[in-house]
Design goal:
Elements: E1 11-12, E2 15-20, E3 25-26, E4 32-33, E5 35-40, E6 45-49, H1 50-54, H2 63-73, E7 80-81, E8 84-91, E9 102-108, E10 113-117, H3 118-122, H4 131-144, E11 151-152, E12 155-156, H5 157-160, E13 177-180, E14 185-192, E15 195-202, H6 205-234
Bound molecules: zinc ion (2 copies).
One zinc ion (ZN) binds next to loops.
């Protein structure tokens, strides 16, 4: 018989395994799954199926998801995040329905309004309506003469450059690709010169990612190319991007 896995003293998220539960789980078909007694960092004792631990599905006694849910529902009205002050809660459109049904209408110090989800605000991902990037760019331009975030052909260069980090509430991890709960498909979109273009919907994330990349090459690459070219001329060969 092969040696039995021993999870004693191992840590899985907030759970530390104390020892095996003498009573395994028996399914109706008769298969047996081992269970482990764990102590959560919050002090609670729980019994967890072995697979739930090893796959990372269970990381706490339940307190972790309760905390996440609570922070999602916390009222942020009146709170300040960078240049944004939260005005009120508003429903987000379907594109962000992956667990974040609510967003926040914010007023930026510059006078413009912006919409952000809880995670974006509390994580510091979003600190202004977008004007901050412009300001720091002009600051940068002043200090070392580079126009890194400039507006060019009606497009914010910083918004179309490759390697941008997706929003914290985007579960795909890919800019411009999100999961649509209602349609159960990945939707790839691209924002270009003030328009939102839907590229398509896809069953798997890879396809959606590829489609988005293709669209970036089609819409963004020529602009970045021309912008780089202009920059090269302006700076006499020295290159910023
Ligand atoms: Zn706990
Ligand atoms: Zn602003």
């Amino acid at each position: 018989m092969s040696k039995k896995m021993d999870l004693t003293n191992q840590r899985f998220g907030r759970l530390t395994v104390i020892g095996e539960n003498p009573e395994p789980y028996r399914s109706r078909s008769g298969s047996i799954t081992r269970r482990w007694n764990c102590r959560c960092d919050c002090g609670k004792l729980v019994t967890v199926l072995q697979g739930s631990l090893t796959t990372g599905n269970t990381k706490s006694c339940g307190c972790l998801s309760r905390e996440k849910a609570a922070s999602r529902h916390k009222d942020l009205s009146g709170k300040r995040f960078g240049k944004l002050v939260v005005v009120k809660r508003i429903p987000l459109d379907n594109s962000r329905a992956d667990g974040y049904q609510n967003g926040w209408l914010c007023k930026c110090d510059c006078g413009k309004e912006a919409v952000a989800c809880t995670e974006d605000l509390t994580s510091g991902h979003k600190k202004s309506c977008g004007c901050y990037a412009v300001e720091s760019a002009s600051e940068l331009a002043r200090t070392d003469g580079r126009n890194v975030f400039g507006r060019y052909e009606g497009t914010m260069i910083s918004q179309i450059k490759p390697g941008r980090k997706p929003s914290k509430c985007n579960k795909s991890g890919v800019v411009g690709v999100h999961w649509n709960v209602r349609r159960q498909r990945w939707i790839a979109r691209i924002g270009f010169q003030g328009k939102k273009i839907t590229i398509g919907s896809f069953q798997n994330l890879d396809e959606a990612t590829r489609a988005r990349k293709k669209a970036e090459e089609k819409y963004f690459a020529p602009i970045i190319e021309r912008w780089n070219e202009e920059l090269r001329k302006k700076m006499g060969g020295a290159l910023a991007c």
